[in-house]
Write a structure and sequence with these properties.
456 residues; mainly alpha; 0% strand; globular; disordered N terminus
């Protein structure tokens, strides 16, 4: 009981700057490591073969969909668990934790079936190059069929984050990413007596890192995370009401992240009209932007339990201070990313051993798309605010408007000019629209908090 009280005091009493630093910095560090892995992983694949790099780029929507389902479910687990702890409902918190594990297992089974049945048609839709299709089938089959690690890892990490143990979450993510980084060149190129596996080696390294991180996450939850109790019997006896609570918050987050997969497939089909190199450029951009956005998502992961806990405890002033600080940090970091993309786009592309054709398209693409970073920080933190304090549909609406209603139609219309450079303008246009919507919903949300505060 004493440990629980300490945790509650930390979330509800510790000064906000110190609390945000304590909660978010480990997550930002772990996300930076993860982003570094994303870049280095593709850099090794690019050295192996340009066709392999394109195959991995085309695999992104399916991988993103897996992570979307895992993290969206995790958002629901995180928010509900933190809220129940803020309300001092221990039994309800335990049910949510165990139900979250059950939902993660079910999610993995769905993607394993996809990996067994739909990979070849998916690649044939987006590429006419047989070698790209062959590499893609090798890579994505391993990622999906052996993907139980990513679902277990993310669920376990969200349980640690929800109870404030972000240091252990950082160790979990960092260890998985480092293992991946070590194994990548060994398995891709066949170093130290290992067979040369190519893209299959890249996939095997990814899966190995995820499995180790999964095991480590559950070890920490069982040994260190005393605020909750995981029980196999409870995992396989979920209650419908807890599933509804998790997905009431999680489904909008899943849809928001999944829309990126729809966006990527749609953009690939638009860019295919110009060249396969344009598709590669778009895939490389998504790898590079992970170094900008994943640390901001790490900041968000640290903000979710703070916002949800204090919303449950009805401490509205702490919510306002948390949002202000979080948004300031996010905007400063994305502005730094903008400066790098504008200054050295050619150096960024060379990380992936870019061909002359990819370089020719990519330099302009990175400079145009990165203009959207000016507004992205506000949008990312706003979505977390809406999800954490009971307005997840706001986040969903903004994401749908940005990525489906604005980007894809705008990109298609701009492609009619016959100039691939014009297509990239769709991204800053969409981000400006998203920024305006975020400000509108933020004003409404904080107005609602004031009304609730007056009612206390």
């Amino acid at each position: 009981m004493e440990e629980k009280t300490v945790q509650e005091n930390k979330m509800g009493v510790m000064p906000i700057p110190k609390l945000v630093f304590n909660m978010a910095v480990p997550m930002v560090i772990s996300m930076l490591v993860q982003a570094l892995y994303n870049i280095v992983d593709s850099a090794f694949v690019g050295r192996y073969s340009p066709d392999a790099l394109e195959a991995v780029s085309i695999a992104f929507p399916i991988q993103n969909l897996m992570i979307a389902v895992a993290t969206g479910t995790g958002v629901g687990i995180n928010a509900m668990l933190s809220r129940h702890l803020g309300e001092r409902k221990t039994e309800a918190a335990n049910r949510v934790a165990n139900t979250g594990i059950f939902l993660s297992i079910c999610s993995y089974i769905v993607f394993a079936v996809i990996g067994l049945t739909l990979i070849m048609p998916y690649y044939k839709m987006q590429s006419d190059i047989q070698q790209v299709i062959s590499y893609g089938e090798q890579y994505l089959s391993i990622i999906t069929i052996c993907g139980f690690g990513v679902f277990g890892e993310i669920a376990g990490e969200r349980l640690l984050q929800a109870t404030g143990k972000t240091f252990y979450s950082m160790i979990t993510q960092g260890t998985g990413a480092i293992i991946n980084l070590i194994l990548d060149p060994i398995l891709i190129f066949g170093y130290f007596g290992m067979p040369e596996m190519g893209v299959a080696g890249a996939a095997a390294a990814t899966v190995a890192g995820q499995v180790v991180a999964c095991l480590l996450a559950f070890f920490f939850n069982i040994r260190v995370n005393k605020e909750i109790k995981l029980d196999v019997r409870c995992v396989f006896k979920p209650q419908i009401k807890d599933i509804k609570k998790i997905y009431a918050i999680g489904v909008p987050s899943i849809i928001m992240a999944s829309i990126t997969s729809v966006l990527t497939v749609g953009m690939n089909l638009i860019l295919k009209r110009f060249s396969e190199d344009a598709i590669t450029v778009f895939g490389v951009y998504f790898k590079l932007n992970s170094f900008i956005f994943m640390p901001v998502f790490g900041l968000n992961n640290g903000l979710v339990p703070i916002l949800s806990y204090n919303f449950g405890a009805r401490k509205f002033d702490r919510i306002r201070k948390t949002v202000k600080l979080g948004m300031s940090c996010a905007v400063l970091y994305t502005l730094l990313g903008l400066a790098v993309f504008q200054a050295v786009p050619d150096k960024l592309l060379m990380i992936f051993s870019a061909s002359d054709a990819v370089m020719s398209i990519g330099v302009t693409a990175l400079r145009i798309i990165s203009i959207s970073f000016l507004f992205a920080g506000v949008g990312i933190v706003s979505s977390t605010v809406f999800q954490s304090i009971g307005n997840p549909l706001h986040s969903l609406f903004i994401s749908v408007m940005r990525q489906l209603v604005v980007i894809l139609p705008t990109a298609y219309l701009l492609s009619m000019t016959g100039k691939v450079d014009a297509v990239w303008l769709a991204f800053p246009i969409a981000e400006i629209c998203s920024f305006i919507l975020c400000l509108f919903f933020l004003i409404r949300t904080f107005g609602r908090l004031k009304q609730m505060e007056r009612g206390l």
